[in-house]
Design a protein that fits this description.
Elements lengths: L2 H13 L2 H8 L3 H15 L4 E3 L4 E3 L1 H25 L7 E7 L1 H18 L3 E7 L2 H9 L5 E5 L7 E16 H6 L5 H4 L4 E3 L5 H10 L6 E4 L3 H9 L5 E4 L4 H5 L3 E5 L6 E9 L6 H21 L2 E2 L1
Parallel strand pairs: 3-4, 3-5, 7-8
Antiparallel strand pairs: 1-2, 5-11, 6-9, 6-10, 6-11, 6-12
Length: 302
């Protein structure tokens, strides 16, 4: 099976159009169609359903897409491993983190990697923990920062940081609150993630069923924080998620009643995909950055 044909098939699937993919790849559309027919003949199954607006994948096409991505990634990692024999980190590294940490880490990490390891191409993903977990298992993410729990599956996990959770509100709203206790916390209007979000489960562990307090359910951190800043309610998050807004006096953080809940974050990679030299370089720089930011972000470093 031709690697170029597999790569082009992935482009078709992502573009959902033969013509768009042909334009991206810079190949004639009839030639691209012949490549698909060659793949279909080799596999003995149709891969695409053609529509007036583009194409969709058949079940066989979806299966091939998942396999092709893994194959192409393995080939890329093999090439990068050979290049890395010179003992200089080389190649792409995909790092994933929850939105609350990505906001604090990514703008600071990227310039450091570019300066110290110019041959490393850093790809940064900001997503919900569940999505990061699945994409790491699928081999799409090299390193991910996840909540530490017993359901990580076949991932190698190493402690990274622990951060206390607190009540987040507009600066004016937080200043107006009396001392925070469990009774007051149970009466405040809350803006929270949906029930499928790991942060929602953490919230429920703190306040119980929040249904009577919910103003809105939002799975977009920037939107949630804008609503909080506008005085629509409060949310429960770590300080790192609002560090920049707190410095500007837009949002404020109030510690929760003891025992203070905290989230334990680990750095993971798939067990069947040992980190490359480039991934090790990114991890080392990430850990240095976390240690430097710890006092400012109220982290306990593992």
């Amino acid at each position: 099976m031709n690697l170029a044909h597999l790569s082009n098939f992935v482009r078709i699937a992502e573009a959902q159009s033969l013509s768009k993919a042909a334009s991206i790849i810079r190949i004639a559309q009839p030639a691209l169609s012949r490549q698909v027919k060659t793949l279909e003949a080799e596999l003995g199954a149709p891969l695409l359903v053609r529509h007036a607006w583009g194409v969709t994948l058949t079940p066989a096409g979806q299966s091939l897409l998942e396999s092709a991505r893994r194959i192409l990634r393995d080939v890329q990692q093999a090439q990068e491993a050979i290049e890395a024999l010179e003992n200089e980190p080389v190649g792409a590294v995909t790092l994933g983190a929850p939105s609350s940490l990505a906001t604090a880490l990514y703008p600071r990490l990227l310039p450091r990697i570019r300066q110290k390891h110019p041959k490393v191409r850093l790809r940064l993903i900001d997503a919900l923990s569940g999505g990061l977990h699945q994409r790491t298992l699928a081999g799409e993410i090299d390193l991910a920062i996840l909540h530490n729990d017993r359901s990580l599956g076949p991932l190698a996990a190493a402690p990274l940081l622990e951060e206390p959770l607190g009540l987040i509100g507009s600066a004016a709203a937080i200043d107006a609150l009396p001392p925070l206790d469990a009774q007051l916390l149970a009466s405040l209007p809350l803006i929270a993630p949906t029930g499928s979000n790991r942060s929602r489960k953490t919230l429920e562990a703190i306040v119980g069923d929040p249904a009577g307090q919910l103003v809105a359910e939002v799975d977009c951190l920037p939107a949630m924080l804008q609503m909080v800043a506008a005085g629509m309610g409060f949310c429960i998050l770590p300080y790192s998620s609002i560090e920049a807004d707190a410095a500007r006096g837009v949002l404020a953080f109030r510690s929760l009643p003891a025992p203070t809940p905290a989230r334990d974050m680990v750095l993971v990679h798939a067990l069947d995909r040992p980190p490359t030299l480039a991934a090790h370089a990114v991890e080392a720089e990430l850990r240095r950055l976390v240690a430097e930011l710890a006092p400012r972000m109220r982290w306990a470093v593992a």
